[in-house]
Design a protein that fits this description.
One of its GO terms (biological process) is regulation of RNA splicing. By secondary structure, the chain is an alpha+beta fold. Helix content is 30%, strand content 20%. The protein folds into 2 domains: 79 residues, 2-Layer Sandwich (Phosphorylase Kinase, domain 1); 197 residues, Transferase(Phosphotransferase) domain 1 (Transferase(Phosphotransferase), domain 1), CATH 1.10.510.10. It is globular.
Length: 326
């Protein structure tokens, strides 16, 4: 399953009741793919008891459940079978048996009525929800950036591209306030697997994906990560664009310079590239990011040529992570 959407983070489909009171009567919530699961708080879900509605994404509704010992979990309920997510979670677990990679822990997968349930570690608010009430200081941003890059380095070392990095898919730990974890492996793709033509939520999509010039690879996550970091820094989506590839490419060029000729040549939409629209004037990265090291790092992550883009290992060695902010 691929979790590609055209929604923007600010008009996200993600909805949460973390801060509101528990729903106590019969409830049904839906995710944007239309999965509608009817449940009641206190009702059984297999051998678990439903205790709270947590959130919904593009494909899944997520509820809190407890087991017979009262231990809480999150259960992601899907209306379609999605073996990809489970297979990727299992593979990650195999190579990260102690859960040190900063990726949501997977516990079980079972069918329930017409639904498929993925039992996961119970986490807290996602970054999108968090940013609606709070902002991050530079130290917090540095820590979150480092944690996500470390998790991504682990995934990339296994040859897996996440393909849907965005604030909704980064979630705070429920217990340890400053820890974040990567979630949502619904679109995660192995290097040797079929690569969907289009990946990512629009605003986080890399130019090589929009251009359809080659099979994309793990470097597409680095572009998405850069978009995500600018958003964490400024508090709003960086590349604001609707569902329009040509306008998206025009905006990218107006911020980051021309698309290399070889990428245009290999593009499957090459014939349309001669008539790109004129975007509204865009804020340049240097106008938004005041820290010089962060600006330098982001510039290397926003390299349009994905073969030249910095990777996770190089990101973690960058000066920005050597700095202590007071
Ligand atoms: N383990 C978890 N603990 C707490 N909340 C979670 C957990 N997994 C997902 N969520 C919440 O549910 C939302 C949707 O889950 P996600 O796996 O991203 O589904 P989708 O594939 O539909 O986007 C997330 O944005 C997050 O807020
Ligand atoms: Mg998601």
């Amino acid at each position: 399953m691929n979790s590609t959407t055209e929604s923007s983070s600010s008009s996200s489909s993600s909805s949460s009741s973390e801060s509101s009171s528990d729903k106590s009567s019969s409830s049904s919530s839906s995710c944007s793919s239309g999965c509608q699961f009817l449940y009641e708080i206190g009702e059984k879900l297999d051998k678990y008891v439903i205790t709270k509605y947590l959130s919904s994404g593009t494909f899944g509704m997520v509820l809190e459940v407890i087991d017979e010992l009262g231990i809480p979990y999150a259960v992601k309920i899907l209306s379609q079978t999605d073996h990809t997510e489970v297979e990727v979670l299992k593979q990650i677990q195999q190579f990260d048996p102690f859960g040190e990679a900063g990726i949501v822990r997977f516990y079980d997968y079972f069918a329930w009525q017409d639904y498929h349930c993925i039992l996961l570690e119970r986490l807290g608010l996602n970054l999108h929800e968090y940013l609606q009430q709070n902002s991050l200081n530079i130290t917090e941003l540095q820590s979150i950036f480092q944690q996500i890059t470390t998790s991504l380095l682990f995934m990339h070392s296994l040859g897996i591209t996440h393909t849907d990095l965005k604030p909704e898919n980064i979630v705070f730990s429920h217990q340890q306030k400053h820890l974040v974890k990567l979630i949502d492996m619904g679109g995660a793709t192995q290097a040797n697997e079929h690569h969907s033509t289009v990946i990512n939520t629009r605003q986080y999509r890399a130019p090589e994906v929009i251009l359809r010039c080659d099979a994309w690879d793990t470097s597409s996550d680095i572009w998405s990560l850069a978009c995500l970091i600018v958003e964490l820094y400024t508090g709003s989506v960086f590349i604001k664009v609707g569902n329009n590839d040509l306008m998206h490419l025009a905006i990218i060029q107006s911020i980051f310079g021309p698309i290399p000729r070889w990428m245009k040549e290999r593009s499957k939409i090459k014939t349309k590239l001669n008539s790109l629209p004129y975007p509204k004037p865009q804020l340049q990265l240097g106008q938004l990011i005041k820290d010089h090291d962060l600006l330098d790092l982001l510039t290397k992550m926003f390299c349009i040529d994905h073969n030249q883009r910095i990777d996770c290992h190089q990101i973690l060695l960058h000066n920005f992570f050597q700095k202590k902010f007071i």
